[in-house]
Amino acid sequence: MSLPVESDAVAAAIQRWENEPGGLLPLLQEVQATLGFIPPEAVPGIATAFNLSRAEVHGVISFYHDFRTSPGGRHRVQICRAEACQAVGARALERHATTLLGAGFGDTTDDGAITLEPVYCLGNCACGPSVRIDDCIHGRVNGDRLEALLAACRQPEVS
Length: 159
Ligand code: FES
Fold this sequence. Notes:
With 159 residues, this protein is of the alpha+beta class. It is built from 7 helices and 4 strands. The chain folds into 2 domains: 4-63, no CATH class; 75-153, 3-Layer(aba) Sandwich (Glutaredoxin), CATH 3.40.30.10.
């Protein structure tokens, strides 16, 4: 069962987009931006509003890598899997990250600090391997640097 804030956010987005041609995608983007994810409980209502099946809405959500269906960690770590970064060691970086975190792509670490995600080009190809942590892109990331970046993500938040 979703929390009231989630229901309100989804209801507001449905109201805003249900009569707009092509409104499904902006609706999903709005829900994701508001809540940080698209609650699975929201899918039936969205499907009804757009006269689609639940499977069709699920299909759209799963097609786009940026959509999440569960709350993520405090930090979002994305490793570029596109060709230019792979040519300079991104695959090894992926293996290093999954080993260090004990989490695969799409997973959140047990401490809730980090969600690991793939990304397909960050526009930083000349400086690969590239990693984005929240809104900051890091270039030429090697194993040691990745370790330091991930350790910083796991530091307690200072308020
Ligand atoms: S290929 Fe990785 S940033 Fe472009």
